[in-house]
Every structure is written in C-alpha cells, then in structure tokens.
Design brief:
Layout (H helix, E strand, L loop, with lengths): L1 H40 L2 H21 L2 H4 L2 H16 L2 H18 L2 H12 L1 H28 L2 H20 L2
Helix pairs in contact: 1-5, 1-6, 2-4, 6-7
Keywords: Signal
Pfam families: DUF2059 (PF09832)
Protein name: DUF2059 domain-containing protein
Length: 175
C-alpha cells in the first residue's frame, strides 16, 4: 500500500512537472505553424508600402500643424519616406514584423487552422493569390476612390455639411 502511494506521488509529481513543458511545446508548435503561414504570405514590399503610406499620412498631418514646417512639406515628406523606408527594410525590423504577424495568427487561429491555411497557400491557387494580392489591393484602392465619390452624392454632402455646422455651433455655444 505504501509503495502504491509513493508510485502515485511520483507519477503525479512527474505529471505536474511535465505540464509546463507540454504547454511550452504546444505553444512552440502553435507559433511554428503561425510562422510557417507568415513565411508563406508575408510580402515585405506590400507591407512596407502600406506601412509607409499610413505613416506618411500621419506625419503629413503633424507637419501641417506647424506653419514653419508646412512651407517645406514636400521635401520633409521625401526625407521622412527615405529614412522610414530604410528602417522598414532592415532585417531586424522585417523579423519583428514577421514575429508580430505570427503572434497575431497564434491568437486568432488554432494549430489545425494554421496548417489548413498554410496548405491552401502552398497550392497553385494559393500561390497565385499571394502573387496577385498587390494588384488586387491596388485595383481595390482605385475603385474605392470611385465608389467613395459616387456614394457622396449631393444629398450626403449636404448631410455632412449640416452635421459639421451643428458640431461647430454646439462647440461655440459651450465656450
């Protein structure tokens, strides 16, 4: 009976000690599956162009707030884009971007789902989708601008102007 208790304690202890290892191993497998998907789908040029576009808009807004800088906006934007582009393409930053994608994938998809998605991207159709994605996004951006123009009919432009006038009026009343 005493031997059975000792064996039970040893087995339970072994089991409890192995839990973090199993969990870490499971997390590592999950992360590796996410990293595989990242390696299949990550396009540094597409990522950097998108990042640069967003950063430039934000930076341009900051320049506009300073009349002294606004005079040189084009030149400042050009310098900003050159410096940021160099930073974005550094290997350590590219690795960080990929790790970030992998971390997000592990949060959003199970290991099985990651394997299934990766399997798709390894197919002929999946590879073609990855290759065509910059073209698709470019065409979407062009069409989105046209759609936005058509959506903003006179009716909605008037609605927008009325709401902005109400906002300005309410802000001036509270002063």
């Amino acid at each position: 009976m005493k031997l059975l208790k000792i064996k039970s304690v040893v087995l339970i202890t072994f089991f409890l000690l192995s839990l973090p290892t199993v969990s870490c191993a499971q997390d590592n497998v999950h992360y590796q599956a996410a990293m595989e998907l990242t390696e299949l789908t990550y396009d540094p040029d597409m990522f950097c162009k998108g990042f640069l576009y967003t950063a430039t808009i934000a930076f341009g807004g900051q320049i506009n707030k300073n009349p002294e800088l606004a005079k040189y906006k084009e030149q400042i934007i050009e310098i900003f884009q050159d410096v940021i582009t160099k930073a974005l393409y550094e290997k350590r930053n590219q690795d960080l971007f990929k790790q970030t994608y992998a971390e997000i994938y592990t949060q959003e998809f199970s290991i099985t789902e990651l394997h299934e998605i990766s399997a798709f991207y390894k197919t002929k159709a999946g590879k073609r989708l990855i290759k065509k994605m910059p073209v698709i996004l470019s065409k979407w951006k062009q069409r989105a601008n046209r759609i936005a123009s058509s959506i903003m009919s006179l009716k909605y432009e008037q609605m927008l102007e009325e709401r902005m006038a109400e906002l300005i009026k309410s802000k001036s009343v509270h002063k």
